[in-house]
Amino acid sequence: MQLVQKNILLAITGGIAAYKTPDLVRKLKAEGANVRVILTQSAMHFVSSLSLQAVSGEKVSTDLLNEEAELGMGHIELARWADIMLVAPATANTIAKLSSGFADDLLGTVVLATKAPILVAPAMNQQMWAAKVTHQNCLKLADLGMKLIGPASGEQACGDVGYGRMLEPEELVLEVIKHSSMKDTPKLLKGKRITITAGPTREAIDPVRYISNHSSGKMGYALAETAVKMGAYVTLVSGPVTLKAPKQCNLIKVESAEEMLEAVLNDIDRADFFIACAAVADYRVDNIATQKMKKNKDDALQLKLVQNPDILKTVASLPRPPFTLGFAAETENVVNYARKKLTTKKLNMIAANDVSNPELGFNSEQNALIVLTRENERKLGQASKHSLSLELLKMMETEYRFQNKTNNLQDAVK
Ligand code: PMT
Fold first, then answer.
1. Domains, the chain
2. CB distance 203 to 308 below 8 Å
3. How many whole angstroms from 159 Cα to the centroid of ligand 1?
4. Would you state the pLDDT for residue 54?
5. In the chain, N or C: fewer CB atoms in 10 Å?
6. Per-residue pLDDT, 68
7. Structure pTM?
8. Angstrom distances, CA of residue 329 to CA of 68, 114, 115, 293, 357
9. How far, in Å, from the CA of 278 to the mean position of ligand 1?
10. Is 277 a residue of the active site?
């Protein structure tokens, strides 16, 4: 339940994807949200206000010029009520109108009147999405501070294939969760410098092949995004992933563990915190072939692997190390192995990540962690990687202050 007591104002516009919105409302409510719905006149052709009223438990608003609602200034009341506004599906026409500030219907007026963050989930034919004018309108929306989520690619109702599908209800819910936790993000890390590693490393075998793992970078990027929102200066040292880094980060892209180590060491002097979230390959190929390797007559091929440097251990062993937060991806004995890493690598904190469940950890939207310090152990139950990032960074900041205080006291009595 990650949206408890959050007021979500869902505006539904006239696209075929509107048929998915009763399910979206149900899923938002399952996360504890209060949901109210605005239904535009054309949306009413695709989904009934009665269904939406039944699933939301609230009267659905359809009209700007509704005498009863406007007695209480209905559009202003809705605009003030919302913690987050979600426009889904958002048609090309709606995007054009919102980008120009039209206020000729209830949706347009509420968008102008609300201070809540506005998420827009486009849904349209792939050719309409590709149109230059749609692109320009989307840029205008982003410039106005609205956040586009999606569209996804795939088969469309009209038979075309391409970008333009609305994100699925569960993906939209995750986006709402992400933005609602961001909205309330405390600025606990204001002015602090954090270096974060994320994603996998790739260890070359020859010019076209490599050894790697399933890390998507989602956990590390969520940490980076959240740390920025908490006021930190973030250097994100990232292995090869397909994610977009937050604009405010200093992004350093690397491929191999050795490159990652070099990038980290170049930055670490100024860091207050080091978070090692990357899934760094423990081994690399000893002699990387300079040309593409050929199949030979033998059935087997032997590669000699040598150990990679341990980036986290190297940082934690520096004469003046930053506060170090490691991750431990384990499939068994999760807490014991993590605790061993905490002590042998001399870390301040470690987040044990049980990756035996394919739904969590590597390349998933959600995760669950057990956070260990030398004295304490705390469970962070299954949640989106963004929500977990916020909890984890808050714990890291508290522990940083506590350990600093203890060190200062110890210095004073020496
Ligand atoms: O990227 P996602 O798809 O979102 O998945 C997230 C994740 C599962 C990769 C992440 O949550 C996670 O658990 N990262 C650590 C993965 C890992 O390599 O764990 P490990 O137990 O092998 O390593 C222990 C720690 O040492 C880690 O902090 C790791 O970054 C660090 N390490 C390991 C080896 C090495 N040569 N250098 C290191 O710095």
1. 7-182 (3.40.50.1950), 186-288+302-413 (3.40.50.10300)
2. yes
3. 42
4. 97
5. C
6. 62
7. 0.72
8. 57, 43, 41, 32, 11
9. 5
10. no
